[in-house]
Amino acid sequence: MLIETDPAISTLCERPGFVLIDGRRYLADFRVRHADREELVVLSDSVTAEDARPEINLDSTAFSVRSVQRAELAAARAWIDNWQRMLPSIVATRGLLPTSLLEAIERFVFRPQQMMTIERELSTGDPMLVRAAIRPYQVVEFDGHRLDMRLKVVVRDPLGFEHEFGIERIWLLVIIDVK
Last residue of some domain: 68, 99, 116? Predict the structure, then answer.
């Protein structure tokens, strides 16, 4: 299930809208874009809504729909728990990284390597320092807000003519690296 850590996933959107499954409307928990397809992910305990606004319905024929059952979530729980225990150490040690370690990592990673290989090769002491160096953006805050409004954008071209564009929806997306 680990959507956030899957390198095959290029983008994801949480709670993008409702999808019709077996005659019932469910809130899709994620809209996920892979290199070759898009899918909607519905968790087993997803919200159902029979009376939600129709304009946020998603076309289930345009996406593959994957239902994630409780057993799959339970199987991922150990991995998630381990990361929750490791991340505070990774974040805390990022300020302790010597320049020589960062340079050694750059020299070693001249082609794609597995994280485990990098850790094994460069961990002469505390492996947490290497983990902090090779996983600098493991803790980020991401927030997205869809704003429904009517805006008029006026753009002046190089010849001085103005062009107007109407916008009815904008997204404000913020990603902050947590240190």
Answer: 68
State which amino acid sits at residue 42.
V
Do 124 and 100 share a domain, yes or no?
yes
Residue 55: CB atoms within 10 Å: 7
Global model pTM greater than 0.70: no
pLDDT tens, residue by residue, 102-126? 788 888 877 777 777 777 887 776 6
- Kindly state the helix (H) or strand (E) to which residue 20 belongs, with its residue range: strand 9-21
Closest-CA residue to 29 (of 11, 47, 55, 9): 47
Dihedral angle sign, alpha carbons of residues 129, 131, 137, 139: negative
C-alpha 26/C-alpha 98 separation (Å) is 50
CA dihedral 78, 27, 173, 140 (to 10 degrees): -10
